[in-house]
Amino acid sequence: MTFALSSAAAGALASIPSPSISYIDLGPLRIHFYALCIIAGIIVAVFLTNARLTRRGAEKWVVIDICLLAVPLAIVFARIYHVVTHLGFYFGPGSNPWNPLQPGSVWAIWEGGIAIYGALIGGAIGAYLGCRWTGIRFWTFADALAPGLIIAQAMGRFGNWFNQELFGQPTDLPWGLEIDRPNPAIPVGLPSDTLFQPTFLYEVIWNLLGAAVILWAGKRFTLQWGKQFALYLVWYSAGRIVWESIRIDPSDIILGLRTNVWAAIFGVVLGLVIFVVQSRRHLGLEPSPYMPGRESKAPGAVESTDPTDFVDVSEPPATNDTVGTSATSSLATK
């Protein structure tokens, strides 16, 4: 990859400054802004998901029970995914990856290094288990989560800004990002006043637009059965393909592409598959946000009677009404 950028041209441009600090110390406690951004995003996602689930007829704050499993697993898998796809960072010559007090260890999550796609894998496992526990349909929860999740990801990207990491190629655009030296991600030989593509900002804008599209499309077309989550996967992953392609931080390469580009391509394909399969499998609306036989958890919830719905092996779905009646009942409870 060749970078051609005049130092004088870069210095003459307006630019986006990077924060001079990435943490604050409160006595013996060090608080990283990276962590605060992630926590703030989780809080926003929980509140928005709760509001959307409640409107669908679920018990208020049932989302907390699901998140008790989903959030920890998301964080653990996010870190594992990052370490596995950046093995050279942690297991190279002179490294001490298992010492929790050593900078650059696999445990030093406060230094950054959690991967969205790992979080999606762990979060999906936790959400599935949480939904089985609470009786909420997995796809209903996924749809309710979709806009809050992509907003949370937008908020989390500000953590990369504070950490001065995951920026893009050198640029002479007026919104180039200033990065302090030294920084191990900066290619050798670039002038000290070189500016970089603010990929964190691109993703923030893209994700917020995605949240608006998901909210609009979900209401306009009454998308259910996981189709809003499928739209999230396609939208987020399509943007991620672009941002990953211009980032210059070290990454493992497979067949000429960064590992996260392959993950994003898979995300687009998976989202399309979910949308098509669920559209063909479920022609009507969701009868209830609860699995068959679990509706009593929420007062006034309508019992599921859709024969094409998820079948709980311990609680066979009722069959005394028609699919049309289920769709009508769904409209009455929204």
Question: What report would you give on this structure?
Answer:
The structure is a single chain. The chain folds into 2 domains: 16-214, no CATH class; 284-334, no CATH class. It is mainly alpha-helical. Helix 2 (33-55) packs across helix 3 and helix 8 (227-246) runs antiparallel to helix 9 (259-281). Helix content is 53%, strand content 6%. Strands 1-5 form a two-stranded parallel sheet. Strand 7 and strand 8 (257-258) form a beta hairpin.
Residue fraction in strands: 5-15%
Helix-strand category: mainly alpha
- Main sheet characteristics: 2 strands, parallel
| Strand line-up of the largest beta sheet | 1-5
Query: Separation of termini?
Result: 53 Å
The total count of strands amounts to: 8
Q: Could you state the order of secondary-structure elements as H and E?
A: HEEEHHHHHEEEHHEEHH
Shape: globular
Low-confidence sequence ranges: 1-13, 300-334
What is the number of independent domains?
A: 2
Helix content: 40-55%
Q: Which radius of gyration do the C-alpha atoms yield?
A: 23 Å
How much is the average pLDDT? 84
Number of continuous helical runs: 10
